[in-house]
Amino acid sequence: MIFQKDIETMPRKDIEALQLVRLKRLVKYCYDNVPLYHQRLTDAKVFDGERIKKLSDIQYIPFTTKDDFRDNYPFGLNAVPMKDIVRIHASSGTTGKPTVGVYTKDDLKIWADCVARVAAAGGVTADDIIQISFGYGLFTGALGLHYGLENIGATVIPASSGNTEKQLMMMRDYGVTGLVATPSYALYLSEAIKEGKYPLSDYKLKLGILGSEPCTEAMRSQIENNLGIYVSDNYGMTELGGPGVSGDCTARDGMHFAEDHFLPEIINTDTGERLDEGEVGELVVTTLTKRGMPVLRYRTKDITKLSYQPCSCGRTHCRMSKTMGRTDDMLIIKGVNVFPTQIENILIEIEDIAPHYMLVVTRENFRDALEIKVELTNASLLENYQSLNNLRAYIEHKMQSILGLRTKVTLVAPKTLERFQGKAKRIVDLRNQ
Ligand code: ADP
Ligand code: ZN
To answer: Cβ < 6 Å from ligand 1: which residues?
Structure first.
């Protein structure tokens, strides 16, 4: 089912024409209403849009960064008076001040619309009963999915996160057909079902609408096999208004952007130069319709690529590949750049180990060292030194040959590494301590 067929299957040239009109309107709106943008657009000689004649002229507009959100915390980037704001959300702010997002009534309507598209593209219909196991609160994930799912008429259960036994009880008792969670939590729930006294056949689960953190295809398959469900991925962030920015269709060959509301670009992280279709770089997004807190060319720090090729699902909006991760998460070990997702891809293919791992980075004698702690699936292997050693050496060899990286692998007993109810935190960096 295509939720908004006329928009989601619009001919490419019509999308671009619409984007240009909206981009010009947005630039004027930012110039008129947000002091920071007024200054920057003046400095860049874009003013209220004079230099924007075609879409690629967006390159003349300066980037917006996470620091801009922090420096203007909480409401410095607002474009409307507080009386027009009806909702405030914020990111967790683990690394400083939280990032705040504000919404007008219209912003909320568009947000619910975009999330509804993502959910419909992932297979949700009005017949579904969906449990939202994202933490409710300031986090955009839970309420974002909540209103989007209601919008397509699905039955929503605002379970929030935590209390796994209760989550599972609700799933069985209410006949839940779809789960909204992080991939990490879906994995955790699948383990809990396996160990619990109710077999998988007592659950009616068939869909996973997972997002908010990177999930490799290998990890997705594990989750699908464990839970017997079909999983789709969706992407978003607080700065852009939350989830609903892009999401998988059933072709699962990249997540379709809501291009009538978001204008994506890929840039070279070091030079800021715009890259072509298919080239990997940092995703930059302009919000074309947000009124409360519009954003010009936001540097997401997420590494991905874009495709404008037609998709078998019929949607014409461009697609972004699954992200490799954030530039912040990239580890540089002895000069080799590596994303945790690359390590995950290798680990998941290996038998006898579980998809639970931690990456510990240390500095010994001025050299970086990476230890990969990974769980065994079978504790009895711990008693067989030879097999254990062979497995360890095999994983180290794989890392060396695929990533060109010398690592130290430590195999640990089943169920000893941390499990995550929200986003996973798999990197422990001890270098600056
Ligand atoms: P959210 O509330 O959507 O999780 P945050 O602002 O807390 O928003 O975090 C946004 C970041 O989470 C993104 O920049 C990206 O790094 C990550 N993220 C969100 N969704 C996905 C996804 N589907 N795949 C990979 N990373 C994602
Ligand atoms: Zn598609």
So the answer is: 91, 139-141, 211-214, 233-238, 242-243, 300, 302, 323, 326
- Give the pLDDT of residue 94: 65
Decide: helix, strand or coil at residue 337: strand
Dist. CA 79–CA 209, nearest whole Å: 32
Whether 82 has a pLDDT exceeding 70, the answer reads: yes
Q: pTM value? A: 0.96
What whole-number distance in Å separates Cα of residue 317 and Cα of residue 264? 11
The pLDDT-based confidence of 96 (bands split at 50, 70, 90) is confident
The average pLDDT across 390-402 equals: 97
Tally the C-alpha atoms within 13 A of residue 397's C-alpha that lie toward its C-beta: 7
CA 397 to centroid of ligand 1, rounded, Å: 32
Q: Kindly list the domain boundaries of the chain, sorted by start residue.
A: 1-326, 331-429
| Close Cβ partners of 102 (under 8 Å, ≥ 6 residues apart) | 75, 78, 85, 87, 88, 89, 292, 293
At the topology level, CATH places domain 1-326 in Rossmann fold (3.40.50)
Q: What is the mean pLDDT of residues 230-239?
A: 98
pLDDT of 392 reads 97
Fold observed for domain 331-429: GMP Synthetase; Chain A, domain 3 (3.30.300)
